[in-house]
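Researcher: For the annotation table, I need structure tokens for Oligosaccharide repeat unit polymerase. Please keep the output clean. Sequence:
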Amino acid sequence: MALTIALFWVLAVGIGILVLYQGLTRSVDLFSIRNIYLAGFVVYQIVSPASALRSESYSGFNIIDPSKAAKWFLMFDYLFVLLFLLSYHRFGIANWFAQKLTKGPATASDSLLTGLAISIVIAALGFRVVGYTVPALSAVSINTCIALVSAACAVTGWIWAARRVNPAVLILVAFVVGVSLVVTLGGFYSRRPLISVMAGFAWGAYHRWAKNLSPTQLLISATPLVLIAGLVVSAFTAIRSHQTSSTDAQGTLQQMKGANVSAGTSDLLSGQSVGSAALWILDTFPRDHKYDPLFSLKYMGYWWVPRVLWDSKPEPLSKNVANLAKLRGVNRDVITIPPGVIGYAGAEGGFYAVVIYAFFFGQFTRFFDQLVRLNPGNPYIILPVGCSTGQFLGLARGDIAIFTNVALIGFVFSFLLIYFTSMGFGRSRDAREIPEWSRAPRPLRR
């Protein structure tokens, strides 16, 4: 077992080295959709099972043969990462689709973008109010407001990057980020809305300013911000079990002030129960439960049909894991435990499901990164891509069908919103010569 656990950590370190090497050589942006996805994969599909195996604590799951399940998990992890990277770097399907959505570089005045950011964040506040007052529309309004605050913060980060000490811009940042936190800290159990706000702002700032810095400058500038963001998310993680639909932003902030940040950080980095759930699946499927071949791919289509129109619409595995595993001490009919992409693959066919999902997500992440590559300096393309960063970070953990669809919704909604603005105010320009350290990433080999 010790060797198996060590090999999990070898894979995690290898991914980290790859990300840093390609980021420093500018072959793949450090802050790219691919790397965001891989960060989530490392936490939820590598560190989480390794931590569970090391402590022999499986969050209530009864795993008959942990050693065998661990070996399957390890093999699937290595296979998934290899094929994911192969798909991302060598297959051109995503590149073809990205080129179809590229209309050429454009720019807009910061005054226009300022008005856009303020309008978007106020609209997000309106959608959040609708979610509180009209329960039937809560799911739609929640996903919409998350996309909107992500877009508003991405636009604001873009503006701030060019005028980092301008008092008027700092007031704009305080207003937009403040309203966004009011929207995302009240009544949410999930961390994704909070992460979407911070990642959206960082995405806009990175792609207008920080990516042009030398590695040393980037490290000095980014480290304190990353640490602060990590502390905020850890504090929220520590108190989110106390969140209810009636908890407002002020109440959440009060709880976060007294949060056990150390415990929150431990929970955050350990991936919580994801690794245990996936290990249980690999231990019991197909011995005790039948495969449901590629259900997640099918559910990507099912998800769009409202349950009021399809009362017997199948539920994703995360809704049934607690009942199937006969977990004790929890409300099995309410709790949701997603096992992550490897867990879903293990319940949906095993080896061939891992292969298919690895190729799918390799192309899915490459599509968004390619849009950014083809449109350097174009806020009308770059910023909508950044609006789904929270979804991509959780994609390796959560319901992969739902997260994939919500990522698409966030991108399309933000793209259309900013695109229609660009029709009236955007203007074409030629790419400018830029210094060595602000050079756009080199095209990847196919």
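Researcher: And a one-line annotation?
Model: Confidence is low (pLDDT under 50) at residues 427-441.
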